[in-house]
Design goal:
Blueprint (H helix, E strand, L loop, with lengths): L3 H5 L5 E10 L11 E2 L1 E14 L4 E6 L6 E4 L13 H12 L7 E7 L9 H16 L6 H16 L6 H8 L4 E6 L4 E6 L7 E7 L7 H19 L12 H6 L4 H25 L7 H13 L6 H12 L4 E5 L6 E7 L3 H15 L5 E3 L8 E2 L2
Parallel strand pairs: 4-6
Antiparallel strand pairs: 1-3, 1-13, 2-7, 3-6, 4-5, 7-8, 9-11, 9-12, 10-11
Helix pairs in contact: 2-3, 2-4, 3-4, 3-5, 4-5, 6-8, 8-9, 10-11
InterPro entries: Galactokinase (IPR000705), Galactokinase_bac (IPR022963), Galactokinase_CS (IPR019741), GalKase_N (IPR019539), GHMP_kinase_C_dom (IPR013750), GHMP_kinase_C_sf (IPR036554), GHMP_kinase_N_dom (IPR006204), GHMP_knse_ATP-bd_CS (IPR006203)
Subcellular location: Cytoplasm
Catalytic activity: alpha-D-galactose + ATP = alpha-D-galactose 1-phosphate + ADP + H(+)
């Protein structure tokens, strides 16, 4: 593997990191002004960087050959494609926001599994932003960096993502879940240490190819926006759980009704999960995980057979609760399990996958970790 010096012929000025995330509960609620509860993972993207003063940025990936170079002043949405569109988008949003970053050489290295739904794209943007800002000693609040990353992904890359992934990558702290209220733009750190209760959070990448994920994600978001407009509210967060049945009765389309039911009940599940965690009742969060999965399977319709088999098998093997996590149509499940049962639950999922002819799944460490930072 080529080093930074091999690629760019110079020594780096520093390195920065941003982690992937897994969401404990609160799926497809962020773009509805709702509530989410992610943790940052140990898995991360590391950017090694050096300053340039010619207004150009060169990017290279440890996992790919070649170097992509572009002029900051010439960046426009669509001007850089493939994976390099993300660091280009980071440079573009900094330029558009009035930050002078001069230029840089950037080398990326990642141990976030690709396609696992663990927010590698947000980590890539956040890592680029903290590196470009850090090279120039520009101090920007982590929450603002998250907003810049979201704008870059929305406006430059063209993905209609919410703000959860970027905020998790920037603002999570070790040993905590991040309780993020999107409408209020407020965060709270909720202690989350399953090992202290004799538990483990199992994250299983089901290795399912993402099926139509971009178009389906956009379609779900459009359905939610359509429902909010029909109900005369700014976002579905404005529908109180107690008023859900009345709101559903006002909607004309049965598919849209199901989408709304998922979002409103999912927001309530986040509230309930946080209350239980604050009360030290982590085991009781398990059934909320399972109810969330049922809602995503039946009402939001974003699961695939691999996700459903993994969840059902985990529950049959003794998990306290399990659910798919992330945008859906592939990715990962999480399962809350007794610590001494983690291996047997994973083995049961592996056996079920083999019997179904699915690609073998992979387990990940789910230690709540810190958000983006400078390494050196």
């Amino acid at each position: 593997m080529s080093s930074f010096g091999d690629v760019f012929g110079t020594t780096p000025d520093g390195s920065w990191r941003a982690p992937g995330r897994v969401n404990l509960i609160g799926e497809h609620t962020d773009y509805n002004d709702g509530l989410v509860l992610p943790i940052a993972l140990p898995n991360q993207i590391v950017v090694t960087a050096s300053k340039r003063d010619d207004g150009r940025i060169a990017v290279a990936s440890a996992g790919r050959g070649g170097v992509t170079e572009f002029a900051i002043d010439e960046l426009a949405p669509g001007s850089v494609d493939d994976w390099a569109s993300y660091p280009a988008g980071a440079a573009w949003i900094l330029r558009e926001s009035g930050y002078s970053i001069g230029g840089a050489n950037l080398r990326f290295e990642s141990d976030i599994p690709s396609g696992a739904g663990l927010s590698s794209s947000a980590a890539l943007l956040c890592a680029t932003l903290v590196a470009l800002l850090g090279l120039r000693d520009i101090d920007v609040d982590p929450a603002e960096v998250a907003r810049l990353a979201q704008r870059a992904e929305n406006q430059y890359v063209g993905a209609p993502v919410g703000l959860m992934d970027q905020t998790a990558s920037m603002c999570c702290t070790e040993g905590h879940a991040l309780y993020f209220d999107i409408r209020a733009m407020s965060t709270d750190q909720i202690p989350f240490n399953p090992a202290a209760d004799g538990l483990a959070l199992l994250v299983v990448d089901v290795k399912a190819p993402h099926r139509h994920v971009d178009g389906e994600y956009a379609a779900r978001r459009k359905s939610c926006e359509q429902a909010a407009a029909e109900l005369g509210v700014p976002a579905l967060r404005s529908i109180a759980f107690e008023d859900l049945d009345a709101a559903l009765a006002r909607l004309s389309d049965n598919v849209v009704r199901r989408r709304v039911r998922h979002v409103v009940t999912e927001i309530r599940r986040v509230e309930d999960a946080v209350a239980l965690m604050r009360s030290g009742k982590l085991r009781e969060v398990g059934p909320l995980f399972t109810a969330s999965h049922v809602s995503m399977r039946d009402d939001f319709e974003i699961t695939v057979p691999e996700l459903d088999v993994a969840v059902d098998t985990a529950l049959e093997a003794g998990a306290l609760g399990a659910r798919m996590t992330g945008g859906g149509f592939g990715g990962c499940i999480i399962a809350l399990v007794e610590a001494d049962a983690a291996d047997s639950v994973l083995a049961a999922i592996e056996k079920a996958f083999a019997e179904k002819g699915f690609t073998a799944p992979a387990a990940l460490a789910a230690t709540p970790s810190a958000g983006a930072s400078r390494l050196s």
